[in-house]
Amino acid sequence: MADFSRQDLSGSRFEHVELAHAEFRTVDLSHGRFRGIQAHHVQVRDIELVDVDISGELRDVRINGVDVAPLIEAELDRRYPERPAMRPTDPAGFRHAWDVVERLWGETVARARGLDPGLLHESVAGEWSFVETLRHLVFATDAWIRRALLGDPSPWHPLDLPWDEMPDMDGIPRDRGARPSLDEVLELRRDRMATVRRVVDDLTEQSLAGDTTPVEAAGWPPPRAFPVRECLLIVFNEEWHHRLYAERDLDVLESRG
Predict the structure, then answer these.
(1) Are 208 and 201 in contact (CB under 8 A)?
(2) Does 1.20.120.350 match the CATH number of domain 85-256?
(3) CA-CA distance, 207 to 203, in Å (whole number)?
């Protein structure tokens, strides 16, 4: 066990580091940046949270004895009236949810077209560019719909972009240097979104309640069976949140333009 007591580690970089069961006492994390963090079953005592921005999945998060997750969920639903549609329970609900995804992304793409094309390759605060965000959504559809759900062992396109923390896997592209045009990526997106449309249009109560057939090939997701509902909800979750991120970053890009 490493002991860093009374040491100055300012400016240190921790990447792919296991910190399970680590203890932090009298630690200054001001101006820190955390990404891809798992923090299950964590206890924090005597903390000061000032000017903090937290985004992600919140469940059973108690602050001063209050579970704030339901409060946050309710407020997000109030701010975004379409958000509850992303929690469908039956085939009709999944079809409606995809209607919402198609409409909202159509509005966001129309907004992006109003910018200088070069800005769509720019990062805001270290996040993916607008074009990279679209490439990542192609990857999500390829992984969870075309591979896990439809059984294609290697559905990848050269422009697919996995999440940054995913280990490199044979056969899965990750070309961060690619700079395809918006139209090139949108053509790919239209094809993948049409695939999701066909899947949800063909859903029945029976198929929605079933599991996928394991894909007997290495890749992502792992070669095992998944609930059909889970595969679809993962894609819907990706589509919803990455559109919000894109809208947030378009605010900044518009000011740059």
Answers:
(1) no
(2) no
(3) 6
Residues 6+ apart with CB under 8 A from 248: 124
Q: Indicate the Cα dihedral angle 145, 104, 135, 140, nearest 10°.
A: -20
- Summarize pLDDT for 73-104 with one digit per residue, the tens: 999 999 999 999 999 999 999 999 999 999 99
Here the tokens at position 102 are: 């198609």
Across the strands, what pairs with 211? 227
Q: What Rg, from alpha-carbon coordinates, does the chain have?
A: 20
What single letter denotes the amino acid at residue 149?
Answer: L
DSSP 8-state assignment for residue 65: T
Instruction: Show the tokens assigned to 157.
Output: 């396109």
**22, two tokens:** 């680590």
How many alpha carbons lie under 13 Å from residue 59 in its C-beta half-sphere? 5
Q: Is the confidence at residue 134, as pLDDT, over 90?
A: yes
**For 179-205, what is each residue's pLDDT tens digit?**
999 999 999 999 999 999 999 999 999
Cβ-in-10-Å burial (0-12, 13-18, 19+) of 170 comes to: exposed
- Minimum mean pLDDT among 95-109, 162-176, 222-236: which range? 162-176
Start-to-end CA distance of the chain, whole Å, equals 50
Q: What is the pLDDT of residue 16?
A: 85
Residue (of 94, 166, 174, 97) closest to 132 by Cα position: 174
Give Cβ neighbours of residue 182 (< 8 Å, ≥ 6 apart).
112, 113, 117, 120, 130, 131, 134
